[in-house]
Design goal:
heterodimer; A: about 375 residues; Butyryl-CoA Dehydrogenase, subunit A, domain 2; 3 domains; 4-stranded antiparallel sheet; 12 helices; B: alpha+beta
Chain lengths: ~375, ~290
């Protein structure tokens, strides 16, 4: 056990910071105020990710055969920290790298791997994730978007909701029901669906989180070739759970929160505001929660670095990430004062990014259930 | 970064566990707390096994691992003061060692031969003569005494270092006691049945216990990281701030889950829980 960074790791982080300083435009704060899913950021990500890819920094930890550089898992963690801390200039493409890639590598056919992984590692494709439905939130296994086999294709009918990034996405990682609803998690299949397929309709949902944040996606007789199925029919649940293990701690959310604290203190000081005893104590406490999330996140990265299978430590980390985001979210508003209420301010941007942390990619309650059952060995609530 | 124990670390952890199984544990803690509150047998077992020189010979992280293990087994010795704070100051001094802020009750004060006194920017090292300590009654899991804080040899400019290492030691001790509380309570809620089922099967218990896992795990890793990095001011502050907040939160959760039996001295919970409050308070929390 040791907690140091190697010379390589330190220099990699410095290079990333220099790269970001050079590549992010002067109005980046304004551009990124609506989050990774906004049109501005989605468009920016295409050029930016191409540049990252050219340097080998988009998918450094992937195997060479899939467009990576066999870099250690730690390198990906450093990359993720720097990107998320700086407003995620990869836009929605962080998702490709964090969980789509690993899931496709594990379950994809040779053809799917060849096609999709190449595009992801070049940085020229956007994806969205079709999991939640109006009646399948935390109880994801009750999802009812149907896919009926018709010859060489599936006919998909149903609706997804809370889908991010899909206005600009080219593909959807879609969970569908291919058996009776009573089969629950045993009757679910994954389809990799081109979003330009006829019969798909996307409607934006107006939210307080920012523009282009959530959408409803309607599927009416959407024909998807069987070759676009990921894994076997009715094997989708295990694939989705595998993806979620990566997604839950894909984002080092604490990195943005910790940076927000720094910026807000600097801001307060430049306005001649005194950070007195009570605020100082709150700052230390909030920063400590970011550090706690960081070290638990590192615990999970370490397991990946040792090629160990995912454990409930990722659920532990996710709970800490959410707690830190909320603590910093509240404090950034408090320290920012009334000006933090203005759209696009530091406090506002951070707060909106923090709001969905306990709901997205599985609620805190589901994470807590998994920690109770798998980490502590407690029985399921009947 | 590597969270896996090296062979050396594994053997240190294993031999500490073996020693603690024999010389510590909640039953022993209850016996010791009923008398002086200090366990000279455990102290000499740790000394004979060579653990006091871990920091110099192996590293601060390894000394922290043993400190955590002692706390998790409810050992009643001030190992962190003798094995981490004193060597960090470059001191070879007579143990037992206690740490003082000049005022207020001193943990393990009555058993100390040497007192390290934090005096602003300086540290004073003072011998404790027999009869100087006045034991004070406390319910908070440790023996306390009042000690004179005058005189002693002055180490100019060593105050910041002592403060930082003291914070790390406290964070590590809290992490161990949190683990003790968590393990004990998890076993309890698996066994205790109400409404025809284990109370640990209720989400009302599970979700709060899951939060306790987060607080316990993060406290331990942050404290270890701060020890590994040589107790930088920043890291030490973060470690104790987080651990102290975790201690206060987990205390109430585990007592709630243990119910009325948790307040009795025959139930083991108090040997870990009551010390949490003392540790969280020792440096004013942060």
């Amino acid at each position: 056990m040791e907690f140091g960074w190697s010379e390589n790791e330190r220099s990699y982080r410095n290079q990333l910071r220099e790269f970001l300083a050079a590549e992010l435009p002067g109005n980046w704060n304004e551009m990124s105020k609506d989050g990774p899913g906004s049109d501005a950021q989605a468009a920016f990500s295409q050029a930016f990710c191409g540049k990252l890819a050219a340097r080998g920094w988009l998918t450094p930890h992937w195997p060479k055969e899939y467009g990576g550089h066999d870099a250690p898992a730690w390198q990906h963690a450093i990359l993720s920290e720097e990107m998320w801390a700086h407003g995620e200039p990869r836009g929605p493409q962080y998702m490709n790298v964090n969980w789509l890639g690993p899931t496709l590598m594990r379950y994809g056919s040779d053809e799917q791997k060849r096609f999709h992984l190449a595009r992801i590692s070049r940085g020229d494709v956007l994806w969205c994730q079709g999991f939640s439905e109006p009646n399948a939130g935390s109880d994801l296994a009750s999802l009812s978007t149907r896919a009926e086999r018709v010859g060489d294709s599936y006919a998909v009918n149903g609706q997804k909701v809370w889908t991010s990034y899909c206005k600009n996405a080219e593909f959807c990682f879609l969970l569908v029901r291919t058996d009776k609803i009573e089969t629950r998690h045993k009757g679910i299949t994954v389809l990799l669906v081109p979003m330009n397929t006829p019969g798909i309709e996307v409607r934006e949902i107006d939210t307080v989180l920012g523009d282009r944040y959530f959408h409803e996606v309607f599927f009416t007789d959407v024909r998807v070739p069987v070759s676009a199925r990921l894994g076997a029919e009715n094997d989708g649940w295990g694939i989705a759970m595998y993806a979620l293990q990566y997604e839950r701690i894909g984002l080092p959310r604490y990195a943005r929160s910790a940076r927000t604290l720094e910026l807000i203190v600097a801001d307060a000081k430049s306005n001649g505001r005194v950070i007195d005893g009570a605020f100082k104590e709150k700052l230390v406490a909030a920063r400590a929660m970011c550090e706690a999330a960081r070290i638990l996140y590192y615990r999970v990265i370490d397991q990946r670095a040792h090629n160990q299978p995912p454990t409930a430590d990722s659920n532990v980390a996710r709970l800490a990430l959410t707690a830190a985001d909320r603590a910093v979210g509240d404090l950034a508003l408090e320290l920012g004062g009334p000006a933090a209420l203005l759209y696009g301010s530091l406090g506002d941007g951070n707060f909106r990014a923090a709001m969905p942390a306990g709901v997205a990619t599985g609620t805190s309650e589901i994470n807590a259930n998994l920690v109770a059952q798998r980490w502590l060995g407690l029985p399921r609530e009947a | 970064m590597d969270f896996t124990l090296t062979e050396t670390q594994q053997s240190i952890v294993d031999s500490a566990a073996k020693l603690l199984t024999k010389h510590a544990g909640p039953k022993r803690a209850r016996q010791v707390l009923a008398t002086s509150g200090y366990d000279p047998e455990l102290a000499s077992a740790l000394r004979e096994a060579g653990f006091l020189s871990l920091m110099k010979e192996t590293g601060a992280l390894e000394a922290a691992m043993v400190t955590e293990a002692i706390s998790a087994r409810a050992g009643l010795v001030h190992f962190g003061a003798a094995a981490m704070v004193a060597p960090a100051l470059g001191m070879e001094i007579d143990e037992p060692v206690a740490l003082s802020r000049q005022r207020g009750p001193v943990r393990y004060g009555a058993s100390a031969k040497t007192l390290l006194i934090l005096d602003g920017a300086d540290v004073r090292v003072r011998r404790v003569d027999s009869g100087e300590a006045r034991p004070m009654r406390s319910n908070f899991g440790f023996p306390f005494a009042e000690l004179p804080a005058d005189g002693g040899e002055r180490l100019s400019g060593a105050g910041a270092k002592m403060r930082a290492w003291w914070r790390v030691v406290l964070a590590v001790e809290i992490a161990g006691a949190l683990r003790g509380c968590l393990t004990f309570t998890t076993d309890y809620v698996k066994e205790r049945r109400q409404f025809g089922r284990a109370i640990g099967s209720f989400q009302a218990i599970q979700h709060r216990l899951a939060d306790c896992v987060v607080l316990t795990e993060a406290s331990r890793w942050l404290a270890y990281e701060a020890a590994f990095q040589g107790a930088p001011d920043d890291g030490a502050e973060v470690a104790i701030s987080y651990a102290a907040a975790a201690a206060r939160r987990v205390f109430h959760e585990v007592h709630q889950m243990n119910g009325a039996i948790g307040f009795t001295r025959e139930h083991d919970l108090h040997v870990w829980s009551m010390r949490l409050q003392a540790l969280a308070l020792e440096m004013g929390g942060a």
